[in-house]
Amino acid sequence: MPELPEVECVRLGIESVKGVQIHKVEWNYPALWAKETVDPQAIESQKLINTHRKGKYLILEFDRHLLLLHLGMSGVFLLQDSQVEPRPHTHLVLKLKGKGHGSDSASLNGWELRFSDPRKFGHLHLIEKGEASAKYSVGDEFERWSKLGPDALTRSFHGKYFFEKCQKSIRDIKIFILDQKVVAGVGNIYASEALFRAKIDPTRPANSLNLTECTDLAKAAKWIMKKSVEKRGTTFSDYRLTNGKGGSFQSFLKVFQKENETCPGCKSHQILKVEQDKRSTFYCRNCQK
DNA sequence: CGGGCGTCCTGTTCGC
DNA sequence: TGCGAACAGGACGCCC
Prior knowledge:
Elements: H1 4-15, E1 22-27, E2 48-54, E3 57-62, E4 65-70, E5 76-81, E6 90-96, E7 111-116, E8 123-128, H2 131-135, H3 143-146, H4 159-167, H5 173-177, H6 188-197, H7 211-230, E9 272-276, E10 279-283
Antiparallel strand pairs: 1-6, 2-3, 3-4, 4-8, 5-7, 6-7, 9-10
The chain binds a DNA duplex through loops.
């Protein structure tokens, strides 16, 4: 499940081919695309000039268009030689033309950016660049993007902001922090991990947290996700970097998918697994209050 | 507007 | 052993 750190690592991988020209676009599953999307073929002959990320959304910026991507549950974005057999469920292929000049211009010829998504929970949307993207933040005119809360790694996500949001909700704090309109980027893995680090019981109502606790939780979420980016993300089954390799943060997880294991904090209680909003939450009832 | 739930999808795991 | 059922999970759309 790609969350903020995994998406950031994918972005960094794509960033390495910045400047490349798109030779040809192939896609085969229209349902993955937004209804209002521009024909994906429009980016043929355009150059990839930049990459952006907000929460779990990724934006590939071309000369005249923006490609907005969500990896969903099982989406991967691979940079591969066309000779390599594509993974099953490859739904979008951007064939690259090379960097256009210099001695390494041929180095990317025949290479492809490939989007594969077995469970088809991903989402793709191509739009023309608007005035807003030039003047403000890239992609802000995009409806889904504009509804997102502040990216979890930015300064806009701070204790006071989070506290004010929490005050208005009676939902469990674990469920609340997963709401992308509140803060963008936190998913199921890092929600459990951040709450453990902040020593907060995931089943508490959001509006029961005081300012200090909200500040601690925001800091914990940032700390965890920054560490994960350094380790190239958490790999369980599907997630892969653009080079096809997995990250290593899974070995640093404290509670996620560790039901019945001894808590690494108190070393006396077992990690519990509970269901919240049909999703698994892992925590230590002794350490988290 | 907040909150709860159904829906999409397929590889993996579970149960008899 | 094998096969079908249940499950996992992000975000949207619908309902109250």
